[in-house]
Amino acid sequence: MSSPLLGRHGAVPATGPDAGVAWHYGDPTAEQRALTRGGAVVDQSHLGVVRVTGPDRLSWLHSITSQQLEDLPPRTSTELLVLSPQGHIEHAAAVVDDGTATWLISETAPELAAWLDRMRFMLRVEVADVTADWAAIAEPVNAEGAEGEPVTWRDPWPVTAPGGTRYGPADDVHPGLDRRWRLVLVPRDRLAEEVAAREAAGWPLVGTWAAEAVRVEALRPRFGREVDHRTIPHELDWLRTAVHLHKGCYRGQETIARVHNLGRPPRRIVLLHLDGSGHLLPEEGAAVRLVGDARTGGEPGREVGRVTSLARHHELGPVALAVVKRSTPVDAELLVDCDGGAVSAGQEEIVPGEGVSVDRPAAHGPLTRGLGGHPML
User: Fold this and answer.
1) Beta carbons of 96 and 136 less than 8 angstroms apart
2) Which tens digits make up the pLDDT trace of 5-21?
3) Which pTM was predicted?
């Protein structure tokens, strides 16, 4: 459904997974600066909302997803993944419980709600897709919702959660620390009024151009961009905040444990700094290639991955997240396909080339030899 805020003067509609809200409202650079300064509001009403009620809701969600939820306190934000039996990501959701219901904010709300409904069995839970009634707006605020305030989800990224682990930068030097982000749920029929109230307080309305630029800078994976049918969480450094490694059995856990223990996920996420001097920019999905050797005259060589998110950052310039083969050398020169040619890309490592988390268990000698493959991936 399209947001009423698309009727604003200067609004340019977003496309792809952000369709239904504005890409920008006429001045994306100023919008991004306002968001970075911590005084802006972002229409996120294209996201879906699922509400789960019933006394068994938290223990049930705990048993079928990647996150530790049994003892989740009210108004405490986390996130979960729904995995296939082979450990591939099928759904991702922001999670917060208000003491009466658990709220899931997701890019795949209808499908997630349908899957959850099939998994209820005889438990005391009810699942409802309430997207038609509730809309999300984003604020650059690093605070949970307080009692009596609207349902609010504070993004836990990038601080490694209890039970999680990291492949990428340490928490205290992670670029995502500078990104403050929370989603506030408001009645959908009051969306314009809620935004207007924040504008009256001095916060401009900004589009997804700005929001995506700060997300890419923060190395923050997103389901609608970085995930395909083969993605496992290790490849995106998503074990930081979305997976609890020490909880009980759940679907996909075998792959999670095996790749964590043995290392070497098949792919890895990287940040690309794109050469914008030629005014060529790729699109999401563009092929990432190794620079060719002398035999090819330096032309693009073998494909090693794909661009997943593209951003025009007001300070960094054109940047992108890409998922590449783990075997791609971390110092390799890369080219990205675009209409009219290719652009060079400097690679900034996120998940290390050796594919090992900071707390991978020590090898046990001969018993682990030859177990580097992952037949279920």
Assistant:
1) no
2) 999 999 999 999 999 99
3) 0.93
Nearest 5°: CA angle at 41, between 35 and 45? 125
Helix (H) or strand (E) holding 215: helix 208-217
CA neighbor of 161 nearest in space, from 88, 255, 247, 60: 247
Q: What is the Cα–Cα distance from 132 to 193, expressed in whole angstroms?
A: 17
**pLDDT mean over 369-377:** 46
Q: Which amino acid, one-letter code, is at 238?
A: W
Question: What superfamily in CATH does domain 4-242 come from?
Answer: Probable tRNA modification gtpase trme; domain 1 (3.30.1360.120)
Give the three-class secondary structure for 152: strand
Q: Give me the residue spans of the domains in the chain.
A: 4-242, 264-349
Give the closest residue to 183 by CA, choosing from 95, 108, 113, 99: 95
∠ CA(348), CA(354), CA(358), 5° rounding? 90
Q: What number does CATH give the domain 264-349?
A: 2.40.30.110
Sequence-distant (6+) residues with CB within 8 A of 367 are none
Residue ranges of E strands in the chain: 12-13, 22-24, 41-43, 48-53, 78-83, 89-97, 101-106, 126-129, 134-139, 152-154, 182-187, 205-206, 267-274, 287-291, 300-313, 317-325, 334-338, 341-349
The percent of residues in the chain predicted with pLDDT above 90, rounded, is: 88
The alpha carbon dihedral of 275, 276, 281, 284 has a sign of positive
Q: DSSP for 4-64, please give it.
A: GGGGSTT-EE--GGGTTSEEESS-HHHHHHHHHHT--EEE-TTSEEEEEESTTHHHHHHHH
Query: How do residues 174-184 score in pLDDT, each as one tens digit?
Result: 999 999 999 99
- 373 — pLDDT class (breaks 50, 70, 90): very low
Beta bridge partners of 139: 182
Q: Residue 245: which pLDDT band, with cuts at 50, 70 and 90?
A: very high
Amino acid letter, residue 272:
L
What gap in Å lies between CA 305 and CA 336, rounded to an integer? 9
